[in-house]
Amino acid sequence: MPEAPLAAAAPVAAPPQTRQERPSPLVLLGLCWVALMLLVAVFGDFLQPFPYTQMDLRNRLSPPVGFGGTWLHPLGTDELGRDVLSRLIASVRTSLVIAFGATVVGAVLGTTLGFLAAHFRGIVEQAVLALVDFSASIPFLILALAVLAFFGNSMGLFVLLLGLHAWERYARIARGLAISASAQGYAGAVRQLGASPWRVYGRHILPNIASTLIVSMTLAFPEVILLESGLSFLGLGVQPPDTSLGNMVGYGREYLTRAPWILLAPACVIVLTTLSVSLIGDWLRDRLDPTLR
Amino acid sequence: MTAPLLAAEHLTRRYTLRRGVFGGAAEVRAVDGVSLAIRRGETLGLVGESGCGKSTTGRLVLGLERPDAGAVRFDGAPMPAPGTPAWRKLRARMQMVFQDPLGALDRRLAIGAQIREPLEIHQIDTARVPELLAAVGLRADQAARYPHELSGGQRQRAVIARALATEPDLLVCDEPISALDVSIQAQVMNLLAELQEQRRLAMLFISHDLRAVRQLSHRVAVMYLGRIVEEGDPDEVLSGPAHPYSRALVSAIPRRGKPGGRIVLEGDPPNPADRPPGCAFHPRCAQAVARCRADEPALLPRRGDGRLVACHVAHGEAEKPSVRAAA
Amino acid sequence: MLRFAASRLARAALTLAMVVTFAFLVLIASGDPADIIMGSDAPPEAVEAFRQAWGLDRPIWEQWLGYFGAVLTGDLGRSMRDGRPALDLVLERVPQTLAITLPALAIKLGLGIPAGVYAALHRNSFADRAVMALAVAGFTIPSFVLGLLLVLVFAVQLGWLPSGGDGTWRHAVLPVVTLGIGGAAVLARFTRSAMLEVLGQPYIRTASAKGVPWRLVVSRHALPNAAIPTVTIVGFMVGTLIAGAVVVESVFSWPGVGRLLVTAVANRDLAVVQCVLLLVAATMVMANLVVDLLYGLLDPRLRGAPRGAAGG
């Protein structure tokens, strides 16, 4: 007995599709900057005028173009004659790679733990919640410093460590949404159909929480950049000969008076990148998930 | 007499509530010693007010939860533990229709994909989707629609189609029409009646709506605070309820013509964490006698017509029946 | 209320226990604790004595208990550099750190909260946008960049203030300002959100519709309710006082706990690192506990909430 077709019946819940809204000019600028940074990170090798460790001793501490320098080194050189622009490009790549890696690590770890807590409940959940409490009880910078002190500083460990800084946010989101999906919701219904847990989490819960997770990741990304550059600035993060944005600021500090451009260039890049990603993250959040404040 | 398709014996399900950090534990018996049997092609209606344990009973029957006491047997074999591969395999033979169709559907997938899903899970031919859509009265082109693009009635049809995909022997419907507009309720009920007849489905139809239950059920059971207090033929129970609680429920059905005759229960709705001693209904019962406060009545056939009822007064076992006019 | 306080206290104690356990595990995992704590310069007899005293030849859980005991009595090992007890080294630097973080906290609260409240009350006005823009700048500019910029302008170019070290009150100005501005920005943004959320509540409209003057609506209804989430973040800031100081102290060569930590990490002076870790965690847990208890006082809804839930 077919029902009379109700064309475009009033939707009961807000559709998952997003409203079409033009992003504000600031957000657009942010998107451009991020795109530029991504290009630099990917094609860095081709864009560097010089290898970033190459020294040009005759042109030590030469200022950037416009302040007395030449186009040979458009952003100037440092105390060893290394081209600042080239170092900047290499640093952007290092910092972005670390930030991406860390964000992904954190998201994967956090989401997995959140799902485990939601699925098994009981003691597993209590353990995860205890870990969350523990995370909240030590400022991450201190924790990172302690781990670096005890375990040293290889790149892999560093990325992993940075990844841990926001894991509990993803865990909370994953656990909360998985639990609400389960009991009376679609996840419970699919489980009732006979689906294995893998199918329930992989095909149903994860796609539904993906947008919330992505917004969280975007909002956490600048924090990782700031953390990494802070640690590198202190000399405890990325070690030479690798170079990162924080690293450059740290080493440029000695020449603050004589050659401020050495640290100003990376400092600007840090600020602009963090700002851009934050703006994009806020915009994404407003579009996709206003419940996440 | 063939063995029933579904046999549940003395099902009990308890929850423990903790009151505060240092408070004691309160035990809530959501389901307390419920036994029921459903034969192939038979529909059992389960009625009662909110919180009486009907939904929990439905979940226990499907094996979604393990009972704390008692056992469920499906087609002669014990119900496997929830989540195990055996249990998952058994889902092809028993399915559930939910109260909230929007919540039961994944909002990111088109309903066609969701109807196809049980076929994929149990590795049955997925070409049956159009046939299923037609069986519930949806058009083939609606398979590409998302749940929020459909009306409440259409969504519930999709849920039903999904539940029928694997041709289950047993369907548990937990308040399937409560969330729908009244005008749509009748359509969905008619659909269920049609499907029941065409496919010889066994059903456990859970509702607080007596009329809906009457339309579909071959037998009806009335639940109160986790126990079945009366069971029998729907028409007989509705025209002549034996248990005081059933009488109150029946009298609440709006009827044309004769006004009045409505039994209003006194006292507060029961707190499951604080069961009254003896018969759980006695604080609100107009006919309660001393024995009702002391002994819990068992569900036994009544002298005369054999109606199953759990009431001392109905069995005539009260010494001094006090008849307070209730009509 | 007592029940509430007791449960929160228990939770705080449990968290602290976890932190100590974590420190213990890290210690065990990174090598021989005796060598680490005593330092590689210590004479072998001392190391051996330490091992005995700590029972490092005993099963792990006994060691854990021993470690717990040591922490509770304040015996956290000796610094590698000068052999002095780590706890003493750390504690003597605490006043220095407080000398810049407490005034900074005052700035954060005194600047951030009013700015956020003002922005919320004058939503979408120029002032609101300005505050928000400054707030965003405040938390996207890392503290070391901000600090170095301030040095560049005020110390190098203008020569008004010294660029580092300690000694006079002038030396403290730039570190305090650096710390304060970043925090003020975060707090302004947060307070604004909290106020906006409260102002959007129906009871505010009701109060205003009843004829209560707006000033009173704000001071009697909006502010106290917005105070509740703000208390959380202030608590968080208090708990992270030291963490925030780490970078700034390094920028300005200010001899506080943060600087000590950085040097210790660089030198792998693990006793000191461990000591700072435990101190910071204890501060944080205490701050969270106070916030929780304040919550209980401020928000009557929380006090009666039963803990633990029924299944299903």
Shape label of chain A:
elongated
Distance between the termini of chain B: 41 Å
Please tell me the CATH architecture of the largest domain in chain B by its name: 3-Layer(aba) Sandwich
CATH topology heading of the largest domain in chain B: Rossmann fold
Beta-strand percentage of chain B?
15-25%
On the 0 to 100 scale, the average pLDDT of chain B is 84
What does this structure look like?
- The complex is a heterotrimer of chains A (293), B (327) and C (312).
- Chain A is mainly alpha-helical.
- Chain A has ten helices and no strands.
- Chain B has 327 residues and is an alpha/beta fold.
- Chain B folds into two domains: 6-224, P-loop containing nucleotide triphosphate hydrolases (Rossmann fold); 244-327, no CATH class.
- Chain B has eleven helices and twelve strands.
- In chain B, the strands form two sheets. An eight-stranded mixed sheet of chain B has the order 6-7-8-3-9-10-12-11, with helices on both faces.
- Chain B starts with 5 loop residues before the first strand and ends in an 18-residue tail after the last strand.
- Residues 319-327 of chain B have low confidence and may be disordered.
- With 312 residues, chain C is mainly alpha-helical.
- In chain C, 78% of the residues lie in helices and 0% in strands.
- Chain C has helices spanning 2-29, 33-38, 44-54, 60-73, 86-121, 126-140, 143-157, 169-199, 202-209, 214-239, 241-251, 257-266, 270-298, 300-303.
- In chain C, helix 1 crosses helix 4 (60-73).
- Chain C is flat, with a radius of gyration of 24 Å.
- Mean pLDDT of chain C is 80; it is low at 305-312.
- Classes of the chains: A mainly alpha (293), B alpha/beta (327), C mainly alpha (312).
- At the A-C interface, helix 3, helix 4, helix 8 and helix 10 of A face helix 1, helix 6, helix 7, helix 11 and helix 12 of C.
